[in-house]
Amino acid sequence: MRLVVIGVNHKTAPVALRERLALVGDDVNVALKQIEAFTDGSVIVSTCNRTEIYALVPHISTSQPANSQLSDSQLSDVQDIKAAGQSSSNNTFSSSMNISSAAISAHITKIKTWLADFKQLPLVDIDPYLYVHRDTHALTHWLRVAAGLDSMILGEPQILGQIKNSVHLAQDQKVLSNQLGWIIDQVFAAAKRVRNETQVGAQAVSLSFAAAKLVTQIFDDLPSRTLLVVAAGEMNRLVATHIAGLGVGRVIICNRNPERAEALAAELRGPNRRVDVRPLQELPQVLAEADIVSSCSGSMDLLIDKTMTIQALKRRRYQPMLMIDLAVPRDIDSTISRIDDVYLYSVDDLQHVIAGNIEQRRQAAVDAELLVSQLVVEIDRRFQVRQVGKDIQQYRACTQGQVDKLLYESIAKLQQDDVSPEDIITELSRRLTQTLTHAPSKLMRKAAREGDSDLLDFVVSGLQDAHRGH
Fold first, then answer.
1. pLDDT tens by residue, 1-24
2. How far, in Å, CA of 230 to CA of 291, rounded?
3. Residues in binding site
4. Are the C-beta atoms of residues 353 and 214 closer than 8 Å to each other?
5. Which of 176, 244, 298, 347 minimizes the number of CB atoms within 10 Å of its CB?
């Protein structure tokens, strides 16, 4: 399949490393263009909990120097097939599935090295935290991620939308090959089936739900409380919607883009709720007004530091504040957690908050994992059929070229004087028979020589069935 995935997530790397490996904003577009130079298409998924590169290793034709990476037996098979269909130096057959494990490993190393260089980090420092999957294992991982089975909050639906956004970015940069596009379509369709046919997403457990639960654990009189939303992205929209639904009396939205902030404000306004929009530059001033802060900006710099928080606390007369930092890299200085009267939670901390419904999702995940395994097998079979169809077309074209050559030679002989048409036709028939039976004959001899009875029975029975069909 040539599909590989290289990445880190909340299970393999701490938040400090994940934020250093995060690819956000223009970095993603630049990265996609650079990776295009040594892949057959790629998608970069970078969220609060993971940074992953999904890529297709470039196909290496059997007519290219990559043959040096094949074993002697693999090279012999390739040469047998080529010999059966070769009619000239420009008419050869090579399988679209053929690529060595060594070639895939080399490209995985190339992607790792590129990532380290791009983020200006030593490869030796990040390699222990990177995971690598290839072929159907990569497909299984991608489907598990898309279905929410690999998320910090089991079964959360946001990741599928985030993957779709990542795919759109890759499409905009024109770095998706037809084959990778086909795989992506299969992943989306399969993830939808997992969520529709199991209960893994039925219970309300997500980052936004966890944030709302924190609010209820710390504050009682919610109508008198103020929520400050720093950045009006999708995650913060979900958090704000959940918390506002608890009855918070006031919401302040700080965002660089006023249009997006106003759109979120329109969603949150209600008869008993005041919603104000402020520019991000006013964050130090409005921080003191907030009892609850939710931040998820995607910025590479801290938005709320320790000094700003201490000043806000003084103005608040040290009333408690709940700060929820969903961003990677972090928006809020982690040292703020040492300040009295401030409850600071990062995305890693939220993992310890979730309870209750998560156990039901774990039980449903057993069924979901089984369905994922079945769907991967189905997708892989469809992929093999799709790929072998191209190989069959190429093989038939090569064989037709050889037949045309023999026919042309025979017609030329028929135009000569003193020739026997019967002899020429007999010779043409003999040569055609040799051409059409060369590859299967060689394959049967090879299977017999190596004691591969299963392959030998498969080829012989297949040829017998083909002859009976005619």
1. 789 999 999 999 999 999 999 998
2. 13
3. 47-50, 151, 156-158, 162, 231-236
4. yes
5. 298
At 55, list the tokens: 């890529």
In three-state secondary structure terms, 175 is: coil
**Radius of gyration over every alpha carbon of the chain, rounded to an integer in angstroms:** 31
Q: Which residues are annotated as a binding site for NADP(+)?
A: 231-236
Known catalytic residue: 296?
no
Name the token pair of 468: 């009976």
Average pLDDT value for residue range 388-412: 83
Tokens standing for 430? Answer: 């003999």
Length of the chain as a residue count: 470
**Average pLDDT of span 27-35:** 95
What's the CA gap between 8 and 14, in Å, rounded?
A: 9
Q: 152 by DSSP, 3-state: which?
A: coil
Q: How would residue 405 be classed by pLDDT, with cut points 50, 70 and 90?
A: confident
**Given phi > 0 = left and psi -120 to 50 = alpha, else beta, which region is 65?**
alpha
pTM for the structure as a whole: 0.62
Residue written as token pair 């390739």: 78
d(CA 448, CA 456): 7
Of 48, 254, 296, 398, the catalytic one is 48
Binding residues for substrate, by number, are: 47-50, 151, 156-158, 162
